[in-house]
Structure formats: C-alpha cells, structure tokens
Specification:
mainly alpha; about 0% strand; about 200 residues; 8 helices; elongated
Length: about 200
C-alpha cells in the first residue's frame, strides 16, 4: 500500500512538471499576440494562419524540449483518459468558437450580446477557451489568463477600441509567463543522461 501511494505521489509530481515547461503558454500566448497585432495592422487573416502553425509546433517543441528532460512518461489509465478527453474538449470548443467568430465577423451577425460589448467578443471567446483549458488540464494559471481576457474585453468594449488590443494584451501576458516558465524549466530540469548520449 505504501509503495502504491509513493508511486501515485511520484506520478502526480511528474504530471505537474509535465505542464510546467511553459511551451503551451508560450505558443498560445504568442499566437494570440500575433493575431492581435495582425488585427491592429489590418491583417485579420493572421487569425486563420497562426493557430494551425501553433498546434503543429506544440508536439515538436515538446519532443525537443520536454521529453529529453522528463523522459517518456506513461501516466495511469485514468489520468490519460482525463488528459485525452480534456484536450479533445478544448480543441472542440476552439473549433466551435472559431466558427462563431467567423460567423460574426465574416457574415456580420451580432450574437445576443449587448451591442457595446461587440469589440470584446474575440477576447471573450478566448477567455472561454482559457477557462476550459484550466478545467480540463487542471492548470490554474489558464484560469488567470481567462480572467485577464475578460478584463481586456471589458476595457476595449468600454473604450470602443479595436479588438486587436485585447488579444495582443492578453496574449503578451500568457507568452511572457510561458517564456519565464520555459527558462525555469530548462534550468531546473537538465537533459537526462540517456538523451545526451544519443
């Protein structure tokens, strides 16, 4: 019983470290920052091009940065089930929100929101995505990102400003935190000897 409890505690620590590399934060925040800057520059197409590039880059960066430092980890069946379904739920929500976004800004239909809130809609959609990721992956910092996007949405709506400001601001915060986490991860988790010998 003691060995099983110790194994579960070790797995919980590894799982926590698994999400502390900052790669997800850096990619999500950097993508949102680029989309926001694209909006401000009049290049709205960035919102279509950037997310798929970030999605493709994530496993590649994990393979090069995280796995050589933590090894190939196989979590227990329950944790794998939650991770897999959590990611599917977040990606599905992202697709739905993108469709909503395209309908609103492409076709021009206003959702059932107060009209003054329209400039904040993109940031509110990202807030929903961040809060969903926080719940699915048990990452409290993504809940903070979500709250930040909500605040940014209210500010740009109150000022009737370009939605790009809210996206760029919220994205910059997540990207900066991701970069900070990545530096700490590289410092705290040196490459495993087996990986260095390859």
């Amino acid at each position: 019983m003691g060995a099983r409890s110790e194994l579960a505690a070790t797995e919980a620590r590894v799982f926590q470290a698994y999400w502390q590399d900052g790669v997800l934060d850096l990619l999500a925040g950097g993508s949102t920052l680029l989309i926001g800057l694209g909006w401000l520059a009049g290049f709205v197409l960035a919102s279509v091009v950037v997310p798929p590039l970030a999605i493709v880059s994530w496993p590649i960066l994990r393979q090069r940065i995280t796995h050589p430092r933590l090894g190939r980890v196989r979590f227990n069946a329950h944790r794998r089930f939650r991770m897999r379904h959590g990611m599917i739920a977040v990606l599905s929500l992202g697709v739905l929100l993108f469709g909503f976004f395209a309908l609103h800004f492409g076709v021009g239909h206003l959702p059932p929101f107060p009209r003054w809130l329209a400039p904040g809609i993109p940031a509110l959609l990202l807030a929903a995505l961040a809060l969903s990721a926080a719940e699915a992956l048990r990452l409290a910092r993504f809940a903070l990102y979500g709250i930040g996007f909500i605040a940014a949405a209210l500010v740009v709506s109150g000022l009737d400003a370009d939605p790009g400001w809210a996206l760029a601001g919220g994205g910059a915060i997540a990207a900066a935190n991701g970069a900070r986490m990545l530096v700490a991860f590289l410092r705290d988790f040196p490459m495993l000897a087996a990986e260095m010998d390859k």
